[in-house]
Structure to design on (357 residues):
């Protein structure tokens, strides 16, 4: 069995648990930073940046401690083309992407395994340190929430195909974070108290990913199109944002829309952020073969969003229409909407647009 090792506590403990269960475990870790962008660190661990060297060193130390081999797989080109270019493109369209979902779908569960096989690494199943669960029922492999809902990461994994899920193991699905850190300490792993990843890129500032002139200044307008001020480039804004707009007002103003075609930021008051539903595209369905009727679901529209009851309908051109039981705030194009039935992930898609309240 292969396990994706990041150099953090979760994947370290997952590897140790598999070893203790008697599996023949080999670790693989991704090398993704090619130095194309000057990214300054902030003291917080990030997924993409020069501190990747420390991640690989940490992964090597864990493997030495628990006695399993480690292979570093070069995915710099793939990460640049499938994650960074996607991320840049979405922001330049006025959308707010979730790079972790794309990274899981295309890098960790696809290119990483393909290149590992090409390198002669022999394995049948793939494991990660994600907090999620899988189950087989009636010949179908399902993705389920983790037992510890406060750490559940099924939202990040909804884009996996049923075939990928059938070959995946999540050893931490029944554990909580405190238990995982306790196991790491009991094993003497140096990752036991390592902080979790906080940012996508080192420093948390995405602007170094964009070339000079790509993020041009433009107008900030209200819903009627009245110019209220100037913005510093649409890549610096997202729907629902309040801070950093730079406008004085008797009532707080929020970003309610980003018009990339006209290079405008549209602002309004909080009530303008509420939507009665959304249209989602790029659907990936796990628990069903196709969306052909109405489903009752709970939908999560961003990682920190509390799931809300909704009706899920098929929509034209292989899209989905979701109607919330109660209007929801800050439905953000580019983010993912994930559909649940109980603990099972029915599927999900990319938010194309909000439906006005």
């Amino acid at each position: 069995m292969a396990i994706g090792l990041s150099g953090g506590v979760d994947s370290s403990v997952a590897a140790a648990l598999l070893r203790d269960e008697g599996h023949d475990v080999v670790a693989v870790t991704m090398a993704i930073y090619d130095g194309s962008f000057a990214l300054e660190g902030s003291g917080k661990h990030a997924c993409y940046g020069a501190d990747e060297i420390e991640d690989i060193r940490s992964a090597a130390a864990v493997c030495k401690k628990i006695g399993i081999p480690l292979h570093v797989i070069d995915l710099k080109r793939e990460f640049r083309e499938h994650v960074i270019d996607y991320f840049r493109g979405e922001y330049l369209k006025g959308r707010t992407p979730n790079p972790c979902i794309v990274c899981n779908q295309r890098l960790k569960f696809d290119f990483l395994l393909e290149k590992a096989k090409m390198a002669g690494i022999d394995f049948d199943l793939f494991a990660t340190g994600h907090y999620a669960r899988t189950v087989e029922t009636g010949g179908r492999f399902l993705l389920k929430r983790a037992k510890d809902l406060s750490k559940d990461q099924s939202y990040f994994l909804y884009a996996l195909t049923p075939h990928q899920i059938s070959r995946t193991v999540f050893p931490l699905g029944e554990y909580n974070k405190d238990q995982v850190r306790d196991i790491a300490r009991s094993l003497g792993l140096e990752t036991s108290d390592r902080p979790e990843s906080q940012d996508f890129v080192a420093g948390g500032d995405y602007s170094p990913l964009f070339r000079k002139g790509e993020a041009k200044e433009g107008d900030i307008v209200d819903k009627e199109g009245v110019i209220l001020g100037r913005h510093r480039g649409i890549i610096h804004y997202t729907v629902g944002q309040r801070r950093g707009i730079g406008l004085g007002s008797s009532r707080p103003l929020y970003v309610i829309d980003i018009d990339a075609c006209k290079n405008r930021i549209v602002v309004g008051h909080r009530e303008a952020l509420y939507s009665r539903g959304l249209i989602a595209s790029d659907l990936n369905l796990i628990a069903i073969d196709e969306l052909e009727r109405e489903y009752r679901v709970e939908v999560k529209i961003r990682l920190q969003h509390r799931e809300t009851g909704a009706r899920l309908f098929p929509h034209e051109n292989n899209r989905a229409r979701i109607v919330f039981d109660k209007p929801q705030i800050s439905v953000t194009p580019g983010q993912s909407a994930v559909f649940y039935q109980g603990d099972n992930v029915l599927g999900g898609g990319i938010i194309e647009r909000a439906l006005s309240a």
